[in-house]
């Protein structure tokens, strides 16, 4: 399948509107930084079936055939803390503060 025309601006906006605060928190510089950083990391693997309201277990091709679902999986990963790391969203908008252990380990 060719990706030509799959990743549309409309698909991105439709998906972004599903996550309160994504690309809309802070001043222009923070909002631009969040979206730029998000787009830079979209190649990471995500798991988002229940969180995004799509049955990807039964129909995994939705992530490759539905632009909104594809963007939703990536935005879910961006907005959701993973294990012992904060969400990228929280880091970018200044909501996350490193712990003393994190500072000691250089995670600031």
Please give a quick description of this structure:
With about 110 residues, the chain is mostly helical. About 50% of the residues lie in helices and about 0% in strands. The protein has a single domain (about 10-105), classed as Lysozyme, CATH 1.10.530.
How would you portray this structure in words?
There is one protein chain. The protein is an all-alpha fold. The protein has 7 helices and no strands. The protein has helices at 9-16, 28-40, 49-52, 62-65, 67-79, 88-92, 100-104. Helix 1 (9-16) crosses helix 5. It starts with 8 loop residues before the first helix and ends with a helix. 22% of the residues are buried. Pfam families: Glyco_hydro_19.
Binned, the helix content reads 40-55%
Q: Termini separation (Å)?
A: 41 Å
- What is the total domain count? 1
Class by alpha and beta content: mainly alpha
Biggest sheet character:
none
Per the CATH scheme, the topology name is Lysozyme
Low-confidence stretches: none
Any idea what the CATH architecture is?
Answer: Orthogonal Bundle
The count of DSSP E runs of length 2 or more, i.e. the number of strands, is 0
What's the CATH C level?
Answer: Mainly Alpha
Count of separate DSSP helical elements: 7
> What integer is the average pLDDT?
83
**Inertia-based shape:** globular
Q: In percent, how much strand structure appears in the residues?
A: under 5%
Radius of gyration: 15 Å
What string gives the helices and strands in order?
Answer: HHHHHHH
Domain Glycoside hydrolase family 19 catalytic: 69-79
Pfam family, one: Glyco_hydro_19
Catalytic activity: Random endo-hydrolysis of N-acetyl-beta-D-glucosaminide (1->4)-beta-linkages in chitin and chitodextrins
InterPro entries: Glyco_hydro_19_cat, Lysozyme-like_dom_sf
């Amino acid at each position: 399948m060719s990706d030509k025309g799959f990743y549309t601006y409309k698909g991105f906006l439709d998906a972004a509107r599903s996550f309160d605060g994504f690309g809309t928190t802070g001043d222009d510089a923070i909002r631009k930084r969040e979206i730029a950083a998000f787009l830079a990391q979209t190649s990471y693997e995500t798991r988002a079936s229940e969180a995004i309201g799509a049955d990807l277990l039964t129909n995994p091709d939705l992530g490759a055939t539905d632009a909104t679902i594809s963007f939703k999986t990536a935005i879910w990963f961006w907005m959701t803390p993973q294990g012992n790391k904060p969400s990228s969203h929280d880091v970018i908008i200044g909501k996350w503060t490193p712990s003393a252990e994190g500072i000691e380990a250089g995670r600031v």
